[in-house]
Specification:
By secondary structure, the chain is mainly beta. A five-stranded mixed sheet has the order 2-8-7-4-5, with no helix packed on it. Strands 1-3-6 form a three-stranded antiparallel sheet, with no helix packed on it. The protein has one helix and eight strands; from the N terminus they run E-E-E-E-E-E-E-E-H. The protein has one domain: Immunoglobulin-like. The protein has one helix spanning about 120-125, and strands at about 5, 15-20, 30-35, 40-50, 60, 65-70, 85-90, 90-100. A hairpin with a 2-residue loop joins strand 7 and strand 8.
């Protein structure tokens, strides 16, 4: 039995969160499931927790259907991977590291094509 952890669709072993800006909170889905069809009782924590992620306490049920837990950062990371999400089942732990960033920049290299309405009635409101 293995636990599958994905943040915002990525299960690459690490991920990122965007910190709040001007009161706007950027929540992302933390997806948990099992990879063998079983259903298990697990606990989840964030140790260390440099980003201030709040997670549900107590036991949670994780099965083949994806369980979605919305999470968000409350602070900017001091170092890459300074928050580790741990899902514990018995003596086994599956982990994913997270980094919280502010002011993200997206770089683009390639072609872009913009198509705009050429009929006036399509772009007037």
């Amino acid at each position: 039995m293995g636990i599958v952890i994905r943040v915002n669709g990525s299960g690459a072993g690490d991920g990122f969160l965007i910190t709040p800006d001007n009161g706007c909170i950027f929540s992302v889905p933390l997806n948990l499931s099992t990879d063998d069809g079983s259903t298990v009782t697990a606990t989840i924590d964030a140790i260390p927790n440099g980003t201030g992620v709040v997670l549900p306490g107590g036991n949670i049920s994780v099965g083949p259907a994806v369980k979605v837990i919305p999470i968000n950062a409350t602070a900017v990371s001091n170092a890459q991977g300074d928050t580790i999400i741990n899902v514990r089942v018995g003596g086994s732990t599956t982990s994913l590291s997270l980094t919280a960033i502010s002011n993200p920049e997206i770089w683009f290299k390639g072609r872009f094509e913009g198509r705009f309405a050429s009929r006036r009635d399509l772009w007037q409101s």
